[in-house]
């Protein structure tokens, strides 16, 4: 398939997942700030922005960093690239570029989702309703994709993007849970839709360590970091259908595989002790893997320019 | 909703009403709409609009994406009227093919003096770079859109030929689906020739044009990209043909062959249905700064390794000055009389024509010969004195670049405007596909509507709308009814979960009831 289209599909996977996970993270954090009087709003908001990769100028005291500001930057403001609104628009733009390869129903699902942004519908929803809406729309898009897409290269690129993004974003969710103590873990699990699964798996014993373990390492839960990394590895494997007898030739596969093995084989206590920095390391790996994938599969999409001279 | 319609009708031929009598093609349509009532129709109109936005059936104006405007009332054309249009378009395309083959080869038409040599050599679309490129199956005009209008007498006339990259066919297909969904009961009362077969016809023609020796050609659609006004169409054609939609940057020419960049490396390309203008196609030969094409395409085509459809240099055939010679060309190449007439035209490059026209600028339409999309057209009666003065100067400075035509009142068709039907001017662009054996004309084509009252320019880039165009299939054939089977097959699913059990037993009961009804003697 065309390199450019493969790249678009990869990013559709990433953007849709990013919009959904950002909504999940915001849902947890805004609830926490509201419900827990022990939480300092400003500190939490600043940390949240930094975990989501948004630079905040520490000198700038004019702008209050509060929930409203966080919602502006991470949910509604289309000029902020980290916002859900901008992410959904980017997903739709990628879909428009790969329009001929998407099923009509998948395109329509993405297009109608996007239309809520310029029409002001998304902005007008109350935050909890908006977050739920984003989750539902993402589920619809993913579901239609699962139901209508041939399992060809294009599908593998979509899954690859989605899986890498999910590993990355779950690690951010874990990092935000570590911001505050106490009820944060339970809320994080709920945000992932993992609470019931977690309770069943851990027989009702709710501990911070157990929650971290579940979100990072559970091999069966689809939003855990390990699950995401494994999915990404599988997608890469089927893209490299030729197969190699010795070692792993694909740089992205190597990066993801090594990180997954580290997660699985290092003691959990080590991780939990340095959760924020470990999670940052994980996010760096995801970024490096994306670079490697871009070089390996999409590099051809770069335009070669003709420097002609008019005779 | 049609109450005051007749009073709004102007001098133009109205396709639905002859004075206040309904014309034949609309005898079924009008009462059905009347019966539906204004409130219901309004609901359907709104559903129509939002469905186009959801589907992303849009085009771009200056970077802004808009839903393509589609009027709810279809335009109906009867079988015998259509037969003439079809024959006329086929004749026209056959002539243009012969003409192009001739001017890029021996130029006998010029030697025989049918058309002056300077008309060709001064055309900005005559590309010497295209001379000597032999299309594999002899086809240069794989796709054409011949613009037609109906004059005061209702006669179809050719307004212009588009044999470069005519666009709009995607809207023919989407309009049909949208109208069938919006007016299913009205649709069912007519027998309408289908349009959905277009992509397959196009693909067949493109494959037939593959370079010699290539049995399973790789066909691609080349688009300038998402910012192009017609991107929707490019994506739709690629999707419905099941081929790649490529941009210039996806292509690379190596040793006279065209390759595309894929995740598995470079893959060969054999046929390019390009939706990029000549000037941007190959920076080696045309604009050296173009990023929309790919350098080396033309050499690859010359080497016979790739087919470019439509062929480079076709623009000379739809130059508006060449258009004026088309009836002569039909006689010259085919030995036939034209089935469809041109609109009367003066060539301002000819001194005597110019003399006839210059004093009457205020009553004529003036068109630049190489313009498209309605650009640069001046409609005399609608222009101010200053505009006419400016026009006169332009014409005198470069008379070769202009033609003049009488103001023709394009025919009108009722169009939904704020809850009532009003007459609006329309034209028609039928699309034809040439696979080398036969010129196939899509039944219907794109009807464009000038949405403003009295407006004569219908281009979508100038705020025009569109209509679904129904070509009737004639008298209905006897429908063969298949006798229903005596017993219904059991549709009960084999495996059902516990939650479904009660439901499926209900279904069983209902089915049994149906069976007993069926078994009763009629």
Automatic annotation (TrEMBL), chain A:
Starting at the broadest rank, the lineage of the source organism is: Bacteria, Bacillati, Actinomycetota, Actinomycetes, Propionibacteriales
The family database entries (Pfam families) matched by this protein are listed as:
Alpha-E
Q: Which domain of life is it from?
A: Bacteria
InterPro entries (alphabetical): ATP-dep_Glu-Cys_Ligase-2 (IPR051680), DUF403 (IPR007296)
Q: What is this protein called?
A: Putative alpha-E superfamily protein
**Where does the DUF403 domain lie?**
1-298
From TrEMBL, chain B:
Segments traversing the membrane:
none
What SUPFAM superfamilies does the record point to?
Glutathione synthetase ATP-binding domain-like (SSF56059)
Pfam families for this protein: CP_ATPgrasp_2
Per its UniProt entry, which superkingdom is the organism in?
A: Bacteria
InterPro entries documented for this protein: ATP-dep_Glu-Cys_Ligase-2 (IPR051680), CP_ATPgrasp_2 (IPR025841), UCP005522 (IPR016450)
**Which residue range or ranges hold the Circularly permuted ATP-grasp type domain?**
74-450
Stretch list, region Disordered: 482-522
Supply the name of the protein.
Putative circularly permuted ATP-grasp superfamily protein
């Amino acid at each position: 398939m065309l390199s450019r289209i493969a790249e678009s599909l990869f990013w559709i996977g990433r953007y849709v997942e990013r919009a959904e996970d950002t909504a999940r993270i915001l849902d947890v954090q805004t609830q926490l700030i509201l419900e827990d009087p022990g939480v300092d709003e400003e500190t939490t908001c600043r940390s949240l922005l930094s975990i989501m990769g948004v630079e905040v100028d520490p000198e700038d005291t004019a702008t209050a960093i509060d929930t409203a500001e966080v919602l502006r930057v991470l949910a509604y403001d289309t000029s902020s690239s980290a916002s859900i609104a901008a992410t959904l628009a980017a997903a739709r733009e990628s879909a428009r570029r790969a329009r001929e390869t998407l099923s009509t129903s998948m395109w329509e699902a993405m297009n109608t989702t996007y239309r809520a942004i310029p029409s002001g519908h998304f902005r007008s929803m109350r935050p909890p309703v908006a977050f739920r809406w984003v989750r539902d729309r993402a589920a619809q898009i993913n579901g239609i994709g699962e139901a209508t897409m041939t399992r060809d290269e294009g599908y593998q690129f979509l899954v690859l993007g989605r899986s890498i993004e999910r590993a990355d974003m779950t690690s951010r969710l874990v990092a935000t849970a570590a911001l505050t103590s106490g009820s944060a873990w339970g809320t994080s699990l709920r945000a992932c839709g993992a609470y019931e699964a977690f309770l069943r798996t851990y027989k009702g014993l709710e501990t911070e360590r157990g929650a971290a373990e579940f979100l990072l390492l559970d091999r069966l839960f689809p939003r855990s970091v390990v699950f995401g990394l494994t999915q990404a590895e599988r997608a890469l494997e089927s893209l490299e259908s030729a197969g190699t007898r010795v070692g792993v030739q694909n740089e992205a596969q190597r990066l993801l595989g090594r990180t997954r093995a580290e997660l699985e084989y290092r003691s959990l206590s080590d991780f939990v002790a340095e959760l924020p920095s470990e999670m940052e390391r994980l996010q760096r790996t995801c970024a490096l893997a994306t670079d490697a994938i871009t070089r390996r599969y999409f590099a051809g999409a770069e335009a070669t320019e003709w420097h002609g001279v008019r005779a | 909703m049609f109450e005051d319609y007749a009073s709004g009708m102007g001098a133009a031929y109205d396709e639905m009403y002859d004075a206040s009598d309904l014309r034949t093609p609309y005898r079924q349509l009008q009462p059905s709409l009347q019966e539906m009532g204004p409130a219901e129709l309004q609901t359907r109109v709104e559903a129509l609009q939002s469905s186009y936005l959801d589907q992303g059936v849009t085009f771009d104006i200056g970077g802004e994406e808009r839903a393509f405007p589609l009027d709810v009332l279809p335009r109906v054309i009867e079988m015998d009227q259509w037969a003439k249009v079809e024959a006329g378009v086929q004749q026209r395309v056959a002539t243009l093919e012969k003409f192009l083959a001739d001017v890029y080869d021996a130029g006998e038409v010029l030697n025989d003096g049918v058309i002056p040599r300077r008309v060709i050599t001064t055309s900005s679309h005559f590309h010497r770079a295209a001379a000597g490129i032999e299309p594999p199956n002899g086809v240069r005009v794989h796709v054409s859109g011949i613009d037609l209008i109906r004059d005061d007498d209702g006669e179809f006339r050719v307004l212009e030929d588009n044999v470069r990259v005519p666009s709009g066919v995607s809207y023919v297909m989407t309009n049909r689906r949208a109208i069938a969904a919006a007016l299913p009961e009205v649709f069912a009362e007519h027998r309408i020739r289908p349009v959905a077969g277009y992509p397959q016809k196009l693909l067949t023609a493109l494959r037939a044009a593959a370079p010699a020796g290539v049995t399973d050609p790789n066909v691609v659609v080349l688009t300038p990209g998402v910012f192009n006004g017609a991107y929707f169409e490019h994506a739709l054609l690629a999707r419905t043909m099941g081929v790649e939609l490529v941009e210039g940057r996806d292509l690379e020419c190596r040793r006279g062959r065209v390759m595309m960049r894929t995740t598995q490396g470079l893959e060969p390309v054999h046929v390019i249905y390009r939706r990029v203008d000549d000037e941007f196609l190959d920076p080696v030969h045309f604009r050296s700064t173009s990023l929309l094409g790919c350098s080396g395409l033309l050499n690859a085509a010359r080497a016979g390794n790739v087919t470019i459809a439509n062929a480079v240099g076709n623009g000379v055939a739809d130059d508006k000055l060449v258009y004026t010679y088309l009836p002569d060309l039909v006689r010259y190449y085919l030995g036939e009389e034209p089935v469809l007439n041109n609109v009367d035209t003066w060539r301002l490059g000819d001194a005597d024509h110019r003399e006839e026209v210059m004093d009457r600028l205020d009553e004529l339409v003036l068109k630049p010969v190489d313009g498209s999309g309605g650009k640069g057209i001046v409609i005399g009666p609608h222009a101010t004195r200053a505009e006419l003065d400016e026009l006169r100067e332009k014409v005198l400075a470069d008379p070769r670049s202009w033609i003049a035509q009488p103001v023709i009142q394009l025919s009108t068709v009722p169009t939904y405007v704020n809850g009532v039907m009003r007459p609006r001017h329309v034209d028609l662009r039928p699309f034809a596909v040439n696979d080398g054996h036969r010129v196939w004309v899509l039944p219907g084509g794109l009807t464009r509507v000038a949405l403003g009252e009295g407006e004569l320019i219908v281009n979508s880039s100038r705020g025009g709308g569109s209509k679904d165009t129904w070509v009737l299939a004639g008298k209905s054939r006897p429908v063969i009814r298949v006798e229903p089977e005596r017993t219904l097959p059991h549709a009960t699913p084999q495996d059902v979960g516990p939650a479904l059990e009660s439901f499926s037993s209900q279904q069983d009961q209902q089915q049994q009831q149906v069976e007993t009804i069926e078994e009763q003697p009629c």
